[in-house]
Design brief:
alpha/beta; 317 residues; 6-stranded mixed sheet; 12 strands; homodimer
Chain lengths: 317, 317
Amino acid sequence: MKLAVLGAGAVGRSVAELAADYDHEVVALADSSSGVVDAGGVDVDAVFERKDDEGVVGDGDVDDVLAADYDCLVEATPTTLDDAQPGFGHVEAALERDRHVVLANKGPVAERYDDLRDRVAASAGEVRFEATVAGAIPAIATIEGVGADRVTAARGVLNGTANFILTRMAAEGLNYEHVLAEAQDLGVAEADPTFDVEGIDAALKCAIVANVLHDGGYSLDDVDVRGITAIPGSALELAAEDSRTVRLIGEVDEDGDARVAPRLLPENDTLAVTGTQNLVQLETTHAGRLNLSGRGAGGPETATAVLADVDRLADPE
Amino acid sequence: MKLAVLGAGAVGRSVAELAADYDHEVVALADSSSGVVDAGGVDVDAVFERKDDEGVVGDGDVDDVLAADYDCLVEATPTTLDDAQPGFGHVEAALERDRHVVLANKGPVAERYDDLRDRVAASAGEVRFEATVAGAIPAIATIEGVGADRVTAARGVLNGTANFILTRMAAEGLNYEHVLAEAQDLGVAEADPTFDVEGIDAALKCAIVANVLHDGGYSLDDVDVRGITAIPGSALELAAEDSRTVRLIGEVDEDGDARVAPRLLPENDTLAVTGTQNLVQLETTHAGRLNLSGRGAGGPETATAVLADVDRLADPE
């Protein structure tokens, strides 16, 4: 397929770099301030070289990319809350032209799922969003396979940064501030870690899963959120004495309630994955519990989910 | 879709019972000696009541079922080796009529994959077989999503009976014969447990995964197989002293070599699932390692995989 890629961060870049390996062609690409369109196929290496040297991917802009002749728009700009702009507008523009959209940006699916479905209903294009929940882990595809009606609950470790910090606190007996600084040095936590450590990123993923399981109706405001910043190192030490540990668990329960909170678990519990790993656990009506774990973030990992979604789309007419 | 179900064991029965919940209709059904066809929809409860009372599902036979007007044949008769008959013939008959086939029977995909592909190439029907590897776990769908070319190796715990026995031996310090008898009492092991404990069932699954990853060429003969019957209880005790345990691991490695053998693992290794759980671990080119675990056997669990496959098929013309 011909892809237009919006966003030139780690995910957008990896999608553009891996597209050829999936027999797709990038015909347009934009970062936040510039864009490039080439109907014959964008020279991806040259474009990113130019971005590294000159700070722009080309002489055009986002509107040029949105107007290009593509089959599928990959929306990988940063997640924004509330009206989820400008991401939502990008998706809207593609659907109005009956083009497919694959999202890595969580905003439109977490914050405006119902609006999104209205736009999809009026379009010949489809929208997919595997990459928005737990990176490379096929959470959405597995829910689709089982059937959303037959998944009674979902829970998991949905944020690798928070999980890395909790794992290190428990393993080394260190406090939150110390481990956060270490995670920032390693590039596992951002300079402003609020989204990850306060549970907001995990809560957005919960809202997305809740929307899939319950046919819409959820946004960040519907998720009860508690992060990990208030957990003292001593709590993890006490837990360890009892062969337990603490993980930040996102959950959509049997009643459809969505929440993110630290939870005490047996050390050998399936949910107690370590480091930056993510895990998604699904309770099903006829097939018991399914566990899916792997890398929940990273450019190539998330791009793998994006490109799997592209392959699941109907071929253009 | 209109389904014809061959096989009235735990899996065939569950497929027939759950089909309506997936908005499919069973129009024909056979066990090993009898068959029933009803273009208006088979009364599934009545048919199984008759089977329980009279030992037959109807007054017809398998040929009547194969000749019925169905969209998809579900082949859930017992797995056979070598020529994989009669299962292979059933699949062949459906494909010759341009009908879809979903397999729970491992024989045709493990033993005659290349023959099967020839038949598929000449048909408008498709063949799917998620249920043949690790029951409810979406192993094949996940490989398809990542792309077989981008999965460099696969390994896992592919037989719940063997895993149950090893778990109990380690937990209770009991020997193989003792635990086998217990497993047989619980219905976890069959009266003749050879297929499970000698690693043959796991090896068939390895052959299937190897065929998917390497575009055919494998059968049971290509898998190096060692089972668990020769493991002394003392070996598990020694392993436990070193915080290790033993699991029967099936593997298709980076060189395309397929094998099943007991392996020493750290007790907390992701592969060391307990009881009758199965786990499939995929190594991918761009997305690291993915782990999928859940119930690897059971009627409703395997039927869930069968019916997910049915939903992945193209709608009939």
